[in-house]
Specification:
By secondary structure, this protein is mainly alpha-helical. It is built from 16 helices and no strands. It comes from Lactuca virosa.
């Protein structure tokens, strides 16, 4: 079915702009209005590719398409149909040159998020991950489209990232969505900085991911060191995203949150939290190095702890300097 959809899309993208297949669109509109989920899904797969390649050709049909998308996203009982509909919706939003045209699709965003949450609540994480990947693309290219409903969208993503009952891949995609938003400074400057509790909650999530590290006594006696020993995918994602977040938002925004949370980790009795805090310091150093309060915080650690014998701290501070 998908190969056939690909074939139709390739042919249509070449000849539709010249009105070479006049009956195709009317047939596709009939299919998405039918009672067959398979026909609806197939048609949306075709629309997804057409909107990506020749979206401007479909703009005259924007009113009709909007109604079709809204109907399927809100009324369809098939998660496959709803996920298939997300593709053309997001591609369509990206192809508009006018903000007015994009705003016509604002009322679809709650339905798009509902599609995601219903799949997660139903245990369909594979399809939910497809939806997350599409939403990440939207966050990176049309960030302003999310602005009016940003609090609700980011709130949902934070809940997904915090849910330890979900698969790691699902949580990582929710985090990637938020990091992508933070990095979209040119398209929407300062948008994420104004969100209540966004930075603090996300920083906390990333710190907790760094705790996913193991230690084995046998590793301390091996001849060849493996620097990645004991590290999980959570740990790796946490490291990368702390670095990206600090660079994206800047030291003035990150440092107050970091100082508060890292101080609590360093005061805790668990070695994992000490390790976590020191790794986090190195990861955010590039984005925070020009902020005086951050330098003061690092120096206070030197005074508070006997760090001259702390190999990990020395390595991290050397990298920072």
């Amino acid at each position: 079915m998908k190969k056939l959809c690909d074939t139709i899309s390739e042919l249509a993208s070449s000849i539709l702009p010249d009105n070479g297949w006049p009956k195709l669109l009317s047939f596709m509109f009939q299919c998405v209005s039918s009672d067959s989920p398979k026909l609806q899904e197939s048609t949306f797969l075709i629309f997804a590719q057409l909107t990506q390649y020749i979206g401007e050709t479909l703009i005259p049909h924007i009113k009709h398409l909007h109604g079709v998308f809204l109907q399927c996203l809100t009324k369809s009982g098939s998660s496959d149909v709803r996920i298939a509909a997300l593709g053309p919706v997001i591609n369509f939003i990206q192809c508009f040159s006018s903000s007015g045209d994009r705003d016509r699709f604002q009322d679809l965003l709650p339905a798009m998020m509902t599609t995601l949450t219903e799949d997660l609540n139903g245990g369909q994480e594979a399809t939910a991950q497809e939806a997350l990947e599409l939403l990440i693309e939207l966050a990176g290219t049309e960030t302003r489209f999310l602005r009016r409903q940003l609090v609700e969208v980011v709130g949902s993503m934070l809940q997904i990232a915090e849910a330890d009952t979900l698969e790691e891949g699902t949580r990582h995609l929710a985090i990637e969505f938020m990091i992508t938003l933070a990095e979209a400074r040119e398209r929407a400057p300062s948008m994420t900085r104004k969100l209540p509790q966004f930075i603090s909650r996300l920083f906390c999530i990333l710190l907790q991911m760094l705790l996913d590290v193991e230690d084995e006594p046998a590793w301390h006696t091996v001849e060849n060191e493996d620097e990645d020993a004991g590290e999980s995918s959570n740990y790796s994602v946490g490291q990368e995203c702390l670095d990206r977040l600090a660079i994206a938002l800047g030291g003035n925004t990150i440092v107050p949150v970091a100082c508060e949370q890292l101080s609590a980790y360093l005061a805790a009795p668990e070695w994992q939290k000490h390790h976590d805090a020191l790794i986090a310091l190195a990861q955010i150093a590039k984005g925070c190095s020009k902020v005086a309060i951050f330098l003061e915080f690092v120096i206070s650690l030197l005074v508070k702890f006997d760090c001259s014998t702390h190999h990990l701290f020395n390595m991290q501070i050397s990298a920072f300097l």
